[in-house]
């Protein structure tokens, strides 16, 4: 091989060739994009305009997926594909727009799913606790999540995006999720100073509200305590709102009855926290501070990521012990906490006792119940 041939082949070494993705190692494709061959090709097929708008459409799609998955700087991604940074950014802009216009509407938004499909996604425990025998109540979970951003030199924007709760700058996409983790819609983004209750009020206010067009009176909204100022408005629209109880003024903890009612909500609401975690786990671009320069398309990226999650992530299913959990819940939801009353009666929480290390061999703990793994799962209701 002469010198000219060596120089011609050198630039090809180490280059990833997504235009011929079939020749690549499947593990490498998944490691870079987070998608399998089949999933990558499905996205490509469901984004047909990308082939017309880009000379290297599969490379453009791969670059965008890698950006979402890793959050790597554009200069580093440009080196990976052996193109300039400006070319990479232009290709990713094209890909983002194509996905937003074609792929995302198939898997996210009010028009991509019907009310009957939402009904079929109700899980056993939420349906038993908050539904009815006719099974005609949609049960949804709402929550806001955070995307942290950089500080801004614009005073007004800095004030709106600074959270006095997190002590950081952030924007809030708002998730509307089915019981099985399927995302119906991502609203927003909203400023850090906008509470969850204010966001929900904006969604349901007005005769032309899409929220009120999709859902019906009697549908169930599972909320957290941040929505307490919106509960009255939600119920006035005919929806059933369920939220964990708050501690009354002058009290230090919930009563046994209120604590049990709160657990009925949290045993259903954990799903939205899992969905929030998927964004930070699968799309590292949302785990780090989002660059202010890229903020104009932050919501597009978040919605595209939500559509990808809906398209390729397995839904959450009923626990195999779900019926056993419900039997235990029904038997104990109105049961008094005898141990708590015993502690109060004998003022045990006001005594000072030196710490003593415990061991299974000590005589005092030999009578402690020994539970199997299945018994522990039932005792903790799967948590």
TrEMBL record:
It comes from the Eukaryota. The lineage of its organism: Eukaryota, Metazoa, Ecdysozoa, Arthropoda, Hexapoda. Residues 142-300 form the DDE Tnp4 domain. InterPro entries: HARBI1_dom. Its cofactor is a divalent metal cation. GO terms for molecular function: metal ion binding. This is DDE Tnp4 domain-containing protein. Keywords: Metal-binding. The keyword Cell inner membrane does not apply.
